[in-house]
Structure formats: structure tokens, C-alpha cells
């Protein structure tokens, strides 16, 4: 990291208006730096239009032809083709736009983009039904339903692929990024820096820190980006080529400073974001309640009960039962392979700590030689992780077939038995051995939910993560759990297992 030991205090900027700039209500300021969303939005428009047109084409081909005995009905008329392949896809674009599905604030990260597409699909379905009823148009319900559902699925899939391309571009090439200036005290700005750089896929790149408490707070300290103080914020933004200012934490004791900064940014095309000191709390738990011009952030309690939690339990039991039945040939084959590799039991049983501190015996396929526990004491100095875990990349206690089982995560499949008995869940924090400590402090909060076969820790790096980072991810899951989040983690698990990331 570069070290910044010298800084020249700049004179105060000349007096200038701080109450906004006159501008037309019909025009918006052009962004001078980050323009990635413009070609990306054009690409989404083309993909959405194509997806809706393809869904209409397939629906007409499958249902209209079949309903007419393979004779060409009205779908050969020019007006029908114009409606099905042009007007309906254009209607999709209008409704998607009206629902904010092209708003750059929701593109590329989070679930808001997909939620808006889903809401738009409901609006399109209602609009088509109303128009057909009002005009007394005789339409095939199957073809219309297939076209609408098919368009929704294809649009969601196309946007998912587009998001993957965007993430790859950001991670590998640093493209499509927003350059940020962090404004606040040194601890506040460094905390925000750590949070936004933790996910390169978000496309937020801090390029400078502007200290509100003076440069002396950072003198002689190593900082990841240049530190400034005493400069005009807008001048600094232009100097470093940024397009976003992040107002970190309290940033200033003066109540009106944030408002005046927002006034200064009007008409400049520069974004202003506020990063309050609420770390690892997901958006659905945070609501803004304005009272007399004061925006209060209301933070709700974690929802680890109710109908969603009941649905999770039912999904766990049903999926575990079906999984054990469907995977029984594979489980049998793995057991035979273990027996051939090393004489001994096919399964490994160990006491783990579960929900509310209750212990249970976890089921796993054995991947180590039978004398692995006896050899552990002599290998403690080989540990490559911190915290309550013992991990060695090339552990000599693992036999060849066991190494494959670990890399592919097939050794975890017997834990479906624990899920079926209600001791574990499909998604949750990984269960830790019962003899690894008392789970004091923050770690104990993991016990509020049942441990899982997979979890946020596993899809974010697995064994490559430090203990502190693993605990942070587990606590984030506990505090922000939702059924949709579980499904998202299950989907991400497939990619992680196929790529064998962090498994050893």
C-alpha cells in the first residue's frame, strides 16, 4: 500500500452558490465519467425485446397451429404478427421501464432488478387480459399464458446472463465501475472502503478519501488510497476523475453540511450516497421514516420465525427425503469406493453444535484414513487457518478418493439424513465441532438457526476465508435470512461446487 506522509493544505475555495443550480426539469446532467450503464441498458432493451418476441413466436407455433389442426389461422395476418411480434414486446419494454427495471441503481447487483421484472410481468398480464376483454378479442388462453410466462422466464434468464458478463468485466478488467470519493473521518471511510471493495462485482472503486477532521488524523498511517483534507470536495472529485461521493457515517457534526453538499452536486451528474454506520444489515430490514424532514432509518429485527420459517422447514424435510431416495445409487457407489480405498467404515460421525447449542452427530462420508484422529495431534503446527478450524490444503491423512469427495463436496451428501431428522437445514452456518470452544461472543449468535449443508460461507470462498470473515458471513446470514436468500445460496452453491472453489 502506498504511504502518504505529506499534504499541502489548500486555501479555502472562493465563495459560490450552495443552494442548487437552475436547470430545466426536462433535462438531466450528463455524467462525465461513468457511462457504463448506457450501453448496458441498450443491451438489456435488445435482450428484453428479443425474449418477448421469441416467447410470442414459440407460443404461436405450439398452440395456435395445434388448435387449428395445423392450419394457418389469424396468425398469418399482418395485424396479428405486428401485435404478437412487435407491439407486445414493445409493451414489455414500456412496462419494464415504468417499473424501474432499467434504473442503473438496481442493475448488476442485488435482487431488486429481478423483483421489478417480476412486477412488470404481472402488469403486462393484467394489461393484456384487460385489453382482450375490452375489445372482445378471441385469444387462446394457453398461447397467451405461455407467451407471458415464457417472456418472463426468458427476460430473467437474459438479465442473469448479462449480469454475469458485467461481473466478469468488473472483476477481471475493472470496467463498468463507479469511482468514489469517501468523505468522513478516517475510521468511517476505511470501514466503507473495506465493505465496498469486498465485492468487486458491485463496481464501486474508492479512489480517494477526504477527511472531515483534518489531515493530522491520517499523518504517518498507511492508507489504501490517497488521503486529502482541506480541499473543495467538488474540485477533488474532478481532480481524481470520480463520479460518486460517499458520505460516510456521521462525516460532520454540522447538521446542514450533507444538505448543502447535495445542493452543490445538483446539475453536475455526480452521485451522492450516504453510508450510515449500519454494517452487514441487508436492505429489506432497513426502512426510511421521514419525520419533520428528518429521515430516520428504522432497522427491523431478524425474521427467523413465521410462515417463511415454516416454509423453510417443510422445504428442508421434503428436499432431504427426495434427495436420499433419488441419490441412493450414488450414495451406494461412494460407499463402495471408500471401502475399496481404505478398509473401515464408510461414514464418519462426529459431535457438532446445532440449533440453540444442542449437540448432534453429523453424518459425512469418511475421506481420511482410519487413524486420522490419532495423527491430528502431531499436525497442529501445519494448520493453515485461524479460529476454531483445522485445515491443511494437502492433508496427508486424506486418501485419494476422499480428496475427490472433498473437492466435489460429495462427502457432505449424507447430511441429508440430519436435515430429514431436523438437526440441520439445507442452508445455514456450517456446524462446528462440539469440542472447539464455548461459542462465546459474536460466534454464539450462529446458534440461533439450524446449521446447514451449505451456506453463505461456502458460496463466498469456503476454506480460503479467514475465521473472522467466515463468522461475519454466518452472522450476516442469521441477521438477514429470508426464503429467497436461501434459494439464492442454493443456486450459487451449484456453481461453487462445479468450480471446486476453496474446497480441500
TrEMBL record:
Membrane topology listed for this record: Multi-pass membrane protein
Keyword tags: Membrane, Transferase, Transmembrane, Transmembrane helix
Intracellular or extracellular location(s): Membrane
GO cellular component terms attached to this protein's record: membrane
Bacterial sugar transferase domain residues: 312-498
Main location group: membrane
InterPro entries (alphabetical): Bact_transf, EPS_sugar_tfrase
The family this protein is said to belong to: Belongs to the bacterial sugar transferase family.
Protein name: Exopolysaccharide biosynthesis polyprenyl glycosylphosphotransferase
UniProt organism field: Catenuloplanes niger
Amino acid at each position: 500500500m502506498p504511504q502518504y506522509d505529506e499534504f499541502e493544505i489548500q486555501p479555502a475555495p472562493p465563495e459560490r452558490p450552495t443552494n442548487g443550480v437552475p436547470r430545466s426539469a426536462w433535462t438531466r446532467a450528463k455524467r462525465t465519467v461513468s457511462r457504463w450503464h448506457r450501453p448496458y441498458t441498450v443491451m438489456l432493451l435488445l435482450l428484453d425485446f428479443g425474449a418477448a418476441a421469441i416467447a410470442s413466436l414459440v407460443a404461436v407455433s405450439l398452440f395456435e397451429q395445434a388448435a387449428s389442426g395445423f392450419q394457418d389461422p389469424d396468425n398469418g395476418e399482418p395485424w396479428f404478427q405486428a401485435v404478437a411480434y412487435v407491439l407486445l414486446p414493445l409493451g414489455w419494454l414500456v412496462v419494464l421501464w415504468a417499473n424501474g427495471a432499467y434504473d442503473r441503481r438496481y442493475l448488476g447487483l442485488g435482487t431488486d432488478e429481478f423483483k421489478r421484472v417480476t412486477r412488470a410481468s404481472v402488469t403486462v398480464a393484467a394489461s393484456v387480459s384487460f385489453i382482450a376483454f375490452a375489445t372482445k378479442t378471441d385469444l387462446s388462453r394457453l398461447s397467451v399464458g405461455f407467451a407471458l410466462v415464457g417472456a418472463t422466464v426468458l427476460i430473467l434468464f437474459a438479465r442473469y446472463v448479462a449480469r454475469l458478463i458485467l461481473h466478469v468485466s468488473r472483476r477481471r478488467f475493472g470496467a463498468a465501475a463507479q469511482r468514489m470519493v469517501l468523505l468522513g473521518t478516517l475510521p468511517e471511510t476505511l470501514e466503507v472502503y473495506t465493505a465496498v471493495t469486498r465485492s468487486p462485482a458491485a463496481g464501486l472503486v474508492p479512489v480517494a478519501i477526504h477527511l472531515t477532521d483534518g489531515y493530522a488524523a491520517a499523518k504517518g498511517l498507511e492508507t489504501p488510497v490517497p488521503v486529502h483534507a482541506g480541499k473543495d470536495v467538488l474540485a477533488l472529485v474532478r481532480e481524481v476523475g470520480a463520479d460518486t461521493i460517499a458520505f460516510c457515517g456521521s462525516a460532520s457534526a454540522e447538521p446542514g453540511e450533507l444538505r448543502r453538499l447535495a445542493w452543490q452536486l445538483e446539475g453536475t451528474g455526480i452521485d451522492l450516497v450516504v453510508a450510515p454506520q449500519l454494517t452487514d444489515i441487508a436492505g429489506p430490514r432497513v426502512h426510511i421514516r421521514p419525520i419533520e424532514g428528518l429521515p430516520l432509518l428504522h432497522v427491523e429485527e431478524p425474521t427467523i420465525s413465521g410462515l417463511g420459517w415454516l416454509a423453510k422447514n417443510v422445504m428442508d424435510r421434503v428436499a432431504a427425503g427426495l434427495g436420499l431416495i433419488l441419490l441412493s445409487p450414488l450414495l451406494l457407489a461412494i460407499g463402495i469406493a471408500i471401502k475399496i480405498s481404505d478398509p473401515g467404515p464408510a461414514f464418519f460421525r462426529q459431535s457438532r453444535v446445532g440449533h440453540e447449542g444442542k449437540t448432534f452427530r453429523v453424518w459425512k462420508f469418511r475421506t481420511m484414513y482410519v487413524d486420522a484422529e490419532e495423527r491430528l495431534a502431531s499436525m497442529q503446527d501445519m494448520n493453515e487457518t485461524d479460529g476454531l478450524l483445522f485445515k491443511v490444503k494437502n492433508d496427508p491423512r486424506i486418501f485419494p478418493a476422499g480428496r475427490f469427495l472433498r473437492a466435489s463436496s460429495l462427502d457432505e451428501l449424507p447430511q441429508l439424513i440430519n436435515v430429514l431428522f431436523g438437526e440441520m437445514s439445507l442452508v445455514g452456518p456450517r456446524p462446528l465441532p462440539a469440542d472447539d470452544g464455548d461459542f462465546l461472543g459474536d460466534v454464539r449468535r450462529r446458534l440461533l438457526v439450524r446449521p446447514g449443508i451449505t451456506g453463505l460461507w461456502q458460496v463466498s470462498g469456503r476454506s480460503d476465508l479467514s475465521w473472522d470473515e467466515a463468522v461475519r458471513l454466518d452472522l450476516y446470514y442469521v441477521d438477514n435470512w429470508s426464503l429467497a436468500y436461501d434459494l439464492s445460496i442454493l443456486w450459487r452453491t451449484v456453481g461453487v461446487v462445479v468450480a471446486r472453489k476453496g474446497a480441500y
